[in-house]
Design a protein that fits this description.
The complex is a heterodimer of chains A (135) and B (619). Helices cover 21% and strands 46% of the residues of chain A. In chain A, strands 5-6-7-8-9 form a 5-stranded antiparallel sheet. Chain A has a 4-stranded antiparallel sheet with strand order 1-2-3-4. Chain A is α+β, with helices and mostly antiparallel strands. Chain A is built from 2 helices and 9 strands. Chain A starts with a strand and ends in a 7-residue tail after the last helix. Chain B is α+β, with helices and mostly antiparallel strands. Chain B contains 13 helices and 25 strands. Chain B has helices spanning 12-24, 243-259, 267-272, 342-364, 366-397, 404-431, 438-449, 454-491, 519-527, 543-557, 571-575, 585-595, 597-600, and strands at residues 3-5, 32-43, 46-55, 62-69, 78-85, 92-97, 103-111, 116-124, 132-137, 139-140, 145-146, 153-156, 159-163, 169-176, 182-190, 195-198, 211-219, 222-229, 290-292, 295-298, 303-304, 510-512, 561-564, 604-608, 611-613. In chain B, helix 7 packs across helix 8 (454-491). The longest helix of chain B is centred in the C-terminal third of the chain and has 38 residues, at 454-491. Classes of the chains: A alpha+beta (135), B alpha+beta (619). At the A-B interface, strand 1, strand 2, strand 3, strand 4 and strand 5 of A face strand 5, helix 9 and helix 10 of B.
């Protein structure tokens, strides 16, 4: 077991867990005690791209439409090739869409305002601690 | 979800059914029972909490039930929580267990199959940010020792003893060295649901493994012991509790306080922020003081108002150990807290006794004493000489940015002096007589011949030898490391991967290949370029369509494609669309490149182990 970062995703939790290897982290979505493996990437990639969920770059570029709403691309993961998209708003609320390699939406989660605040806080802390963590 | 259960007297029918069940189902559905220490409380400016981690290494899902017996509850109530642990998956981490109800003691965890469990008792200053912690491996409850049941629990290194049956118990700890030599024994009176950390392995020079045997000598309780682990796995985990979960626990704690006549330590603990030793009824409504284990605690000042009349202020539980800082403090001398470090105490006594006997013998046998002294010094000189020679060889063999005369000169000096010291030490050990080194003697004679007085020559020789030894040994030890560091800086190279150093791609080149647990990402970071993961994928494309379209765009624009084959398993199977790797994205990409090779020739380049190779289908 290595470093584990937990991010709330509505009723589920995004679990980012260090695997063997060099700063290589697996991502799983945990809901009702069941884990769905989404893929893996390195730590810096995951944290910086996930930060764009709550701190979008301006102007935000749409990657297309999901469920009738425009969504922007956040990240794609190696190994099983899931991709994450986000719809902004209303206000600070975010809707996350996970797509599998066949572009099927496998999970939709809604981040409340408090979830967004917690994401900011956890990601800031994790990015701030990068310097002291083994690379 | 945590739930509080106050037991009731079972009806006659229920007793009968239980008895029948015990006959018919003699084997529990649970495969293993573990006991872990827990501690959640606030003490002055530090907040302690417990995190549990479950890891199911089996192939089937497991279920664990955690049961905490509430101290001071005349009804014998318990708090229970159930956890479902997926098979072979990521560890289930339950943070801040029992935080909002306050707890100290042990938690029994019953699992349906073998599940690795670890408990971390951690501290923070703000309740959110992890400061320090210790991780304890769970102990199988069948290792618990009941009253009068010998043999003892045996542990190596630090050990926790904890009472679990709800009644005071006295235990005895016996400490031995690895050869079985007993250093001493000590008894501990442990109140109900309390812990005692016996620290044996940290902080003293005699750091060989200590063995501690613990057994019950009085009382009707039971104890468990758990080897403390310095495993850092849990220490890295995030320790933030989700706000809604914290709120839910607070609501639950309030409900428990309202619905039970004797709630577990609850609102008082939370609102006053004091240690969770007693429940609400022990707060004085007029003074605000809290009654804790026979003493009054002032939450305003964070201090007790009197000494402990029972005399276990520094021995009863984890918090009183090291004056209430069990997570950060260790007690190597046994003087800070209860004196848990028996081993160090007895080592100290033994050494003092040995020194006294040796001084008496020296007074009676001055010549022999002198020989022993010289032989001891000879051994030290030999050891130093061997180390010096080794350092010198390292420096002599080292190459790098440091000037060669410096490294070779230091190395040669250290080797010569090291051999001289080793030989001289061996002679002193053999004869018991003091000898000069060859180099020291030569220097002394040269100075005397030059007209320097013998006294001055002797003094200067001593200083010179010492100075040369220090400079050559320290310098030689540093040379290889300095050379490596300088070489790294000069090359300005990031962390090198085997076989990758030297590859340089264009910043816009597309880097393809199996991710290989981070290898491809590391290659891209070193050599340049971008991975497909770095490019925004349109929502309407499958991954296969996305990679194909990106390759087509590259063929049209002339953008280079760098394909790493280092970790492509069964290449011929992949190309022939057979075998277990045929259906991978990498397999699809390779076959697409081969099928359209006329378009990609000159654009796609292939690499294996950091070296460019021809396309796998080109002879």
């Amino acid at each position: 077991m290595g470093e584990v970062i937990l991010l709330p995703c509505g009723e589920s939790t995004l679990v980012i867990a260090e695997q063997t290897g060099v700063a290589w982290f697996g991502c799983s979505l945990r809901a009702d005690s069941r884990d769905t493996y989404l893929g893996a990437e390195n730590r810096a990639y995951l944290l910086t791209h996930l930060q764009s969920v709550v701190e979008p770059e301006e102007p935000a570029t749409s990657a297309g439409v999901i469920d009738g709403h425009r969504a922007r691309w956040v990240l794609s993961l190696a190994e099983v090739h899931h991709s994450l998209y986000v719809r902004d708003g209303p206000a600070e609320v975010r809707t996350l869409y996970w797509q599998d390699r066949d572009a099927r939406t496998v999970c939709v989660s809604r981040l409340s305002h408090s979830d967004v605040l917690e994401w900011r806080s956890i990601l800031d802390m994790a990015l701030g601690s990068s310097a002291s963590l083994p690379q | 979800m945590l739930s509080y259960i106050a037991p009731r007297e079972p009806s006659m029918m229920k007793k009968l059914l239980l008895a029948l069940g015990a006959c018919v189902l003699p084997v529990s559905i649970f495969a293993a029972t573990y006991v872990v220490p827990v501690a959640t409380a606030r003490l002055k400016d530090r907040i302690y909490s417990t995190t549990l981690a479950f890891h199911n290494e089996g192939s089937l899902p497991a279920r664990c039930e955690a049961i905490y017996a509430v101290p001071n509850d005349p009804k014998g109530g318990t708090l229970r929580a159930t956890y479902e642990i997926a098979a072979g998956g990521a560890p289930l981490v339950e943070e801040d267990v029992l935080r909002d109800v306050g707890a100290i003691g042990t938690m029994r965890i019953v699992c349906t199959s073998d599940v690795a469990i670890a408990a971390r008792i951690q501290s923070s200053s703000d309740g959110l940010t992890f400061d320090e912690g210790r991780t304890f491996a769970a102990l199988r409850e069948d290792a618990a020792v009941a009253h009068g049941a010998l043999p003892t629990i045996r542990a190596f290194g630090d050990v926790v003893v904890a009472e679990v049956a709800g009644k005071p118990v006295t235990v005895e700890a016996i400490v031995r060295d690895p050869d079985g030599v007993e250093f001493g024994r000590k008894t501990y009176d442990i109140p109900a649901f309390a812990q005692q950390l016996v620290n044996l392995s940290k902080g003293h020079a005699h750091a060989s493994v200590a063995i501690v045997d613990v057994h019950v000598i009085a009382g009707d309780g039971a104890i468990v012991g758990a080897d403390e682990t310095r495993d850092t796995a849990l220490l890295k985990m995030a320790v933030r509790m989700r706000p809604e979960r914290r709120a839910a626990l607070n609501v639950q704690a309030r409900e428990m306080a309202a619905n039970t006549t004797s709630p577990p330590a609850s609102s008082v603990i939370r609102s006053l922020g004091t240690a969770a030793f007693k429940a609400a009824p022990f707060q004085d409504p007029f003074t605000g003081l809290i009654f804790m284990r026979e003493r009054w605690y002032d939450p305003q000042t964070g201090t007790f108002l009197s000494t402990d009349p029972e005399g276990y202020a520094d021995s009863a539980n984890l918090y009183s150990y090291c004056h209430g800082d069990p997570v950060n403090c260790t007690d190597p001398t046994g003087r800070l807290g209860d004196g848990g470090d028996l081993r160090a105490d007895f080592r100290e006594k033994e050494n003092a006794e040995r020194a006294k006997r040796f001084a008496a013998w020296c007074n009676a046998n001055p010549v022999e004493c002198r020989r022993v002294d010289v032989r001891g010094a000879g051994i030290m000189r030999m050891i130093g000489g061997v180390g010096q020679t080794t350092a010198g060889v390292g420096a002599f063999a080292s190459s790098g940015p440091l000037p060669e005369p410096v490294t070779k000169g230091l190395g040669a000096t250290a080797i010569v002096r090291g051999i001289d010291n080793t030989v001289t030490g061996a002679v002193e050990l053999w004869t018991g007589e003091q000898h000069d080194t060859v180099t020291g003697r030569a220097l002394y004679l040269a100075m005397v011949r030059a007209g320097v007085s013998r006294q001055t020559a002797s003094r200067v020789t001593g200083w010179t030898e010492t100075g040369v030894d220090i400079v050559s040994t320290v310098g030689s030890s540093l040379v290889p490391g300095v050379n490596r560091a300088l070489a790294t800086r000069v090359a300005s190279a990031p962390r090198a991967l085997p076989g990758v150093t030297g590859l340089r791609f264009g910043g816009n080149d597309l880097v393809y290949g199996p991710s290989a647990r981070g290898y491809l990402r590391s290659l891209q970071q070193e050599a340049g370029g971008v991975l497909l993961d770095d490019l925004p994928k349109p929502t309407n494309l499958t991954w296969e369509q996305f990679t194909t379209r990106t390759l087509d765009d590259a063929a049209r624009s002339g953008r280079a494609v760098r394909f790493d084959l280092t970790h492509v398993d069964d290449l011929s199977g992949v190309l022939n669309n057979t075998g277990e790797w045929a259906d991978t994205i990498t397999g699809h990409e390779l076959r697409y490149l081969r099928a359209n090779w006329s378009r990609f020739h000159g654009i796609a380049h292939f690499y294996r182990d950091g070296v460019e190779v021809v396309a796998p289908w080109v002879r």
